[in-house]
Amino acid sequence: MEKLDFNVKTPIQGVFLDLAEVPDPVFSQKMVGDGYAIDPTSNKLLSPVKGKVIQVHKSRHAVTIETEVGEQILMHVGIDTVNLKGNGFKSFVKEGDSVDIGTPLLEFDLDYLALHAKSLITPILLLNTEGVSLNTTITPGSVISHSDTLFSFQIEKLLSHENQEDYEEIKSTPIIIDNHTGLHARPSAKIVALTKKYKSSVKLTKDGKTANAKSLVAIMGLEVAYQDKITVVAQGSDAKHAVEAISHLLKHEIKEAHDKEETTPKVVPTPKVKLKDPENIYSGVTASNGQGIGTIFQLNKKEITIQKVESNPATEKEIFFDAIKKAKQEIAKLEMQFANQNALNSSKAKIFHAHIEILEDPTIIEATLACLEEGTNAAYCWNKAFNQVANDLKALKNELLAGRANDIQDVGRRVLKFLIHDDDLDINFDMIPENTILIAENLTPSETAKLDKNKIKGFATTTGGSTSHVAILARSLGIPAIVGINDDVMQLATGTPAIIDADHGQIRINYTDKDKNQVQQNITDAAVKRKKDEEMAHMPATTSDGVKIEVAANIANLTDAKNAEENGCDGVGLLRSEFLFTERKQAPTISEQTEMYQSIADALHRTTGKPLVIRTLDVGGDKPLTYLPIDEEENPFLGERGIRVSLANPDIFRDQLKAILSVKQLDDIHIMFPMVSALDELLEAKEIVAEVQAEMGIEKVSIGIMIEVPSAALMAETLAPHVDFFSVGANDLTQYVTAIDRGHTKLAKKADGLNPGVLKLIEMTCQAATKNNIWVGVCGGIASDIPAVPILIGLGVTELSVSIPMIAQVKATVRSYSLDECKTLAHKALTLSSATEVRKLVQG
Ligand code: PEP
Ligand code: MG
User: Fold this and answer.
1) Cβ atoms 382, 408 nearer than 8 A
2) Is the CB of 779 within 6 Å of ligand 1?
3) How far is the CA of 574 from the centre of ligand 1 (A)?
């Protein structure tokens, strides 16, 4: 594979920093791209490369240049400087300008920025780093000037190959896929990114079917599900390393958290009973909650027929790659738009990052190139190639993978627009009238991202599912949406007055004034309630008779801590510290850990001291770590996990304890052990804490345990005298009580934490705690589940640790009940026979 060297000069004088130093996770966690940062000492930004300006942000704080080899360099002056709306910045270039190394790009007022910006640190990023490795010779902290090379990179030329037949094929042993959603787009993208670093050809095989591991669509086409066995097969000079690295990734690094609170809508099942008014109601599936009143607008996308024309392969190739380049630029802009909004939306930016991956996907590119070689025009070849792949995906049984066909269509049409020079392929959203309920066969993610919430009161598509990227975007935009709605809805004339009730997955026409008034009232009430809940989010949550309930947050990292703080958390009830340990080759050092715990504690202590419960490493079994040899287990959930792993690896445990006990605000820190199932485990762990405390000269530290194994709840009276608090891990507790794997594709829905069996164990836990004068929290998913809130309080829980977006609503729910009402509900719930009945009891 041919390699090209490329240098990026220093665009601004200042102090050289690693990206990790940038005080914004969007940059420090490389969500936008890879590179380095500079803390500026001058006020001039010069072009670091020869190329073309492809973006000047309208706030003039960021510029992107595309190099001659097609790589894009983003320079982002300061952090959160988008909020300055251009004040303090002067730009010298516009989009489309050609620049040389040293061409002035922009100038800024250092004093103004120092006063008004969060930070002046300027990340310099390479946007698309697939197949690219960055190098620098500068040491962090050095002062650098324009003549210094900031970093260099090597690009491996797309689709070039060594003669792989000269090498022997290397195969891995069969690998069991442990990700509950199998190899869908995100884990597949990780595999592709890693595989592209190797020269060898790499295939994944499953049941005799084979996929090119450098192709996202090919991997998705294998339909690899949870517990499927796959083999990695590589051929080429670095085949052995490729097989090792990819096997490692598959075994240990593609596992995703089960916690889907942020992305899953509150789906109210579509009524199966005969509707009262079937001819006026169209039903589908909730994709994004909410209601709206407006008029129907049928979005008829322009149909395209591409003629097959004979043409010169070389010319068509040039046209084709030019269109790919332009499409990439457009997608990069969309990605930036979401990445710039806020940290919660930065994950939505990844949807568009995946679109760039699709543009580089060898399955589609190679099919197009083969067709071009036959002397056919680029538009025809591309149209055929991407539609073929999209149709293959659509035919898959797995809803998640089939949903990605829409992303391929989205990217496909974008490129096609440039190939046939037809801007009409883009929907003209300006012509959509106010108060629209949009109906379409489907919407693409890019189209959804452009919807204007002020105009669009809701949308419904006849295709798609609630896990699609379109649904995720609709939720993040706050637009009511229904997917998979009855096709008859396409017959409604544009202009027909309608109501969209996405909460119930319905569109209604011929409604009465009474219906309309009711919906209007619901919309107003919901908006008022949301606003009021948000305004009150930073106030304590007390029941109507004055009992304070702490509403804390479940977090995994510093970004979460900042978001939780902004959203009004009273503290952190669960820091899942394992996220610091996973996806690395060795355990984090004590100082790395201390830094992380300290920065999270600092983020929470911006206003007043808030409790921070740090759960010690909860890995093992289903969450393996590369550097911890745990034998493969038949039943990982019943194996070496949680505190059992820490006790078996005391060095790692001690290091973590030392790091936790080094946090300055120790009075507010609570250590929590996961998966404790018996007193001896607790005592052994406490003994180690006592030794570390003695070494560090620390007298008092708060220690608690998670109650997530039935034996711990049943033995709560025995355990309580030895701890300062209990926190119910209802996710695991429910899976063990109901004997349903929490990630089981079919059964997981039935593992409901409101099962009276689970509630009885929580009651026992609370009773034991009261006797021993300690507090009980709940940190599993039911703490964020609104109907569960009064029940848990009624059982005696005083802390609810919830998912960040739910803080305001949970606090509002606490305020709407008295303790007596909660106790009555809890008491009654314990007598019921199912979670469904408990839900009915609360919701009426
Ligand atoms: C739980 O089991 O409820 C819990 C909070 O822990 P995790 O979800 O991290 O296993
Ligand atoms: Mg758990």
Assistant:
1) no
2) yes
3) 9
Q: How far is the CA of 732 from the centre of ligand 2 (A)?
A: 5
From 15-19, 254-258, 440-444, 777-781, the region with the lowest mean pLDDT: 254-258
Cα(370)–Cα(276) distance, integer angstroms? 56
272 Cβ partners below 8 Å, 6+ apart? none
Q: Which of 413-427, 430-444, 623-637, 716-730 has the highest mean pLDDT?
A: 716-730
Q: CB of 732 closer than 6 A to ligand 1?
A: yes
Structure confidence at residue 748 (pLDDT) = 63
**Which pLDDT tens digit goes with each residue over 482-511?**
988 988 999 899 999 999 999 888 999 999
| Section 381-398 average pLDDT | 87
pLDDT tens per residue, range 246-301: 998 888 777 654 443 333 444 444 433 334 566 799 998 888 889 999 999 998 87
Q: Which of 321-325, 468-472, 750-754, 773-777 has the highest mean predicted lDDT (pLDDT)?
A: 773-777
Spatial distance between the Cα atoms of 548 and 815, rounded to a whole number of angstroms: 9
Contact 597, 605 (CB under 8 A): no
Residues 6+ apart with CB under 8 A from 51: 65, 66, 67, 68, 73, 98, 99
| Residue 354, C-beta contacts closer than 8 angstroms, at least 6 positions apart | 185, 186, 189, 216, 407
Q: Which amino acid is at 392?
A: D
Ligand 1 atom nearest to 578, measured from its CA: 9
Does the pLDDT value for residue 216 go beyond 50?
yes
Spatial CA neighbour of 814 closest among 836, 798, 832, 790: 790
For residue 700, is pLDDT > 50? Answer: yes
603 CA from centroid of ligand 2 (Å): 25
258 CA from centroid of ligand 1 (Å): 9
Q: Do the Cβ atoms of 437 and 292 come closer than 8 Å?
A: yes
Give, using CA atoms, the residue closest to atom 1 of ligand 1: 729
Q: Which atom of ligand 1 is found nearest the CA of 259?
A: 8
Average pLDDT, the chain: 86
Are 789 and 810 within 8 A, CB to CB?
Answer: yes
**What would the two tokens of residue 68 be?**
């001659």
Exposure of 473 by Cβ count < 10 A (0-12 exposed, 13-18 middle, 19+ buried)?
buried
* Class of residue 662 by CB neighbours under 10 A (exposed 0-12, middle 13-18, buried 19+): middle
Going by alpha carbons, the residue nearest to atom 8 of ligand 1 is: 731
Least trusted range by pLDDT, from 124-128, 517-521, 685-689: 124-128
- Residue of the CA atom closest to atom 10 of ligand 1: 732
Check residue 261 and give its pLDDT: 37
- Grouping H, G, I as helix, E, B as strand and the rest as coil, residue 835 is helix
Q: Whose CA is nearest to atom 6 of ligand 1?
A: 729
Q: Which residue has the higher pLDDT, 337 or 760?
A: 760
- 707 Cβ contact list (under 8 Å, min separation 6): 713, 716, 726, 727, 728, 729, 733, 761, 762, 765
- Answer whether 533 contacts ligand 1 (Cβ < 6 A): no
User: By C-alpha distance, which of 13, 76, 11, 16 is closest to 41?
Assistant: 13
Cα 646 to averaged position of ligand 1 atoms, centre (Å): 17
Q: Is 708 in the pocket of ligand 1 (CB under 6 A)?
A: yes
Catalytic positions, written as ranges: 469, 779
Q: pTM higher than 0.85 for the full model?
A: no
| pLDDT tens digits, one per residue of 127-174 | 766 667 788 999 888 889 988 999 998 765 444 446 777 888 999 998
CA 59/CA 510 separation, integer angstroms = 47
- Is the Cβ atom of 729 under 6 angstroms away from ligand 1? yes
3-state helix, strand, coil in the chain (%, to 5): 40, 20, 35
